[in-house]
Amino acid sequence: MENNREACPVQFTTRRVSVFLLILSAMGGLFLLLSYFLSVSASFPTHAIAVATADADRTQPSLTPINRDLYHSSDDLIEQIRSLVHRHPDKLTVETIRAGNKGYKSEISVVTYCHSRKDSDEKSKFRILISFGQHGRELITSELALRILSILSEEQFLPKMDRASLNGTLENAVIKVVPMENLNGRKLVEAGYLCERRNGRGVDLNRNWSVDWGKKEKDYDPYEENPGTAPFSEPETQIMRKLAISFDPHIWINVHSGMEALFMPYDHKNRTPDGLPSQRMRLLLEELNNVHCQKRCMIGSGGGSVGYLAHGTATDYMYDVVRVPMSFTFEIYGDNTATTKDCFKMFNPVDHTTFKRVLDDWAAAFFTLFKLGPSQFDDQSKAGVPKVDKWVSIDEYLDGYLMGRRNRYGKKMEVLEVGMQEIRTYFRLFLLSSVLLLFMFCSRISKTGRQIVSALPM
Ligand SMILES: [Zn+2]
Predict the structure, then answer these.
(1) Which residues form the Peptidase M14 domain (predicted)?
(2) Angle (nearest 5°) at CA 211 between 275 and 369
(3) How far, in Å, CA of 383 to CA of 193, rounded?
(4) Are 217 and 178 in the same domain?
(5) Catalytic amino acids?
(6) Does residue 343 lie in a domain region?
(7) Taken in order 398, 404, 406, 412, is the CA torsion positive or negative?
(8) Structural domain that includes position 381
(9) How far apart are CA 139 and CA 186, in angstroms?
(10) 259 CA distance to ligand 1 centroid (A)?
(11) 438 and 302: one domain?
């Protein structure tokens, strides 16, 4: 009897444990099953929507056209800039640089702002080089170029701008503006190819530079990222390289649209450079984000923040080869509610209010940069700047990843989006079931323990 009584609790406990294990595996199975159903139900409608959207795009031409009330044509914009320069010969000059090969020709207008042109020793001044319109479909960027030049000429003014103090800074600066780097690509967009970002013969001018040139990621799409036949195969890139090397700027800014971001090197690595220059760049971007972007802008290395690497970009070349101490890529606008083929809407504001807001905000951001940029260089005490790396929640990280992918390339994003949603769902389910299992496990142990104790005195 006693043996039985002693054996009984042991058997009882073993049964309890096996019941518990059974529950545990059932839970695991249930979790996997649930996850599967969730992923299927999550992916099905989105895929369906994506297919439906693609079909809708093909069947009905409901794509947003270029808003001619807001946007200049490329010819008109260049003309406006030329007459602006003509009205302000004391401050502005313009030159047109031409190049070509294999029957393909390109030309780039470069406007130089120099406060007092008589004292034209560029090398003794603070030098800033800015390029707009490197991608054909990003029309808003060239409009921003015109706005910035109009403010520099003092024909237009920024609200809340202290012109006297700004002039103090600008006196010691030379600013070269390339309003439309990719004129041939832009012409294609104006001819109706609204999604074209490459140049007039299908090469992405932001993949044609020599740093890490030609490397292709798994999702490489030649329609978007064709790097050309060799580094600097394209006349546009040759002109820009020559300009950058001869001007030797302190600051380089490559202005794009498709999202809101302030990027620093690297694009081809998943990290920012080490040391003081990197800290300077990050501090400056933090400031611009706080003051002009209402902290909405993504900040960091292009490669690390967007979630994929880009090879052969202008900004990496400027930083690594031309040794421009502050090399940036600004992304000034993106509409992630636009369908993937509605490129004009995805990359450019389509209504007057947003158009004006984007130009006002970003013109102000550039003038803050003109003011703060030089001060970063004469204040050597910034050697000990604090690290500004921040912890980012998984949701923020994933959101950033998604937004970047969608906006920069505009295509095949639904699939990725579903993938990330699944990961997020799995992650949450995993956490929830872990907590539940832990809870069950603890309560089992305490119950089993009580029975063993109560069985002993008998
Ligand atoms: Zn772009």
Answers:
(1) 70-372
(2) 50
(3) 48
(4) yes
(5) 331
(6) yes
(7) negative
(8) 74-411
(9) 8
(10) 9
(11) no
Token pair belonging to 293: 């972007």
Query: How many Å lie between the centroid of ligand 1 and the Cα of residue 329?
Result: 9
- Residue in the structure block whose two tokens are 């920024």: 158
Burial 243-274 (b: 16+ CB within 10 A, else e): bbeebebbbbbbbbbbbbbbbbbbbbbeebbe
- Give the contacts of 273 (CB within 8 A, at least 6 positions apart): 265, 266, 319
Number of domains making up the chain = 2
Whether residue 422 lies inside any domain: the answer is: no
- How far does the centroid of ligand 1 lie from the alpha carbon of residue 381, in Å? 36
Q: Do residues 170 and 104 share a domain?
A: yes
In a domain, 421, yes or no: no
* 138 Cα–ligand 1 center, Å: 6
Q: How far apart are CA 195 and CA 342, in angstroms?
A: 8
Q: Are residues 310 and 450 in the same domain?
A: no
**Cα-to-centroid distance, 292 and ligand 1 (Å):** 21
| Among the listed residues 345, 359, 330, 329, the one whose alpha carbon sits nearest the alpha carbon of residue 143 | 359
State in Å: Cα 137 to ligand 1 middle.
Answer: 8
pTM listed for this prediction:
0.72
Q: Are 312 and 207 in contact (CB under 8 A)?
A: yes
Distances from the Cα of 136 to the Cα of 65, 114, 317, 361, 439, angstroms: 15, 28, 21, 22, 58
Compute mean pLDDT per 10 residues along the chain, 458 residues long, and list them. 36 49 52 42 32 38 90 98 97 97 97 78 91 98 98 92 86 96 98 97 98 93 94 98 97 97 96 93 96 94 89 98 97 95 97 98 96 77 33 38 39 37 54 74 58 37
Buried-state track 133-143, b at ≥16 Cβ within 10 A, e below 16: bbbbbbbbbbb
Distance 229 CA to ligand 1 centre (A): 20
Q: In this structure, are 184 and 57 located in the same domain?
A: no
Q: Is 384 left (phi over 0), alpha (psi -120 to 50) or beta?
A: alpha
Q: How far is the CA of 335 from the centre of ligand 1 (A)?
A: 14
User: What is the C-alpha to C-alpha distance for residues 292 and 192, in angstroms, rounded to an integer?
Assistant: 33
How do strand 92-101 and strand 104-114 relate by DSSP bridges?
A: antiparallel
Biggest CA pair distance of the chain: 113
Q: Please, what is the angle between helix 352-378 and helix 139-152, to 10°?
A: 60
- Asked if 182 contacts 135 with a C-beta cutoff of 8 angstroms, the reply is yes
CATH number at residue 304: 3.40.630.10
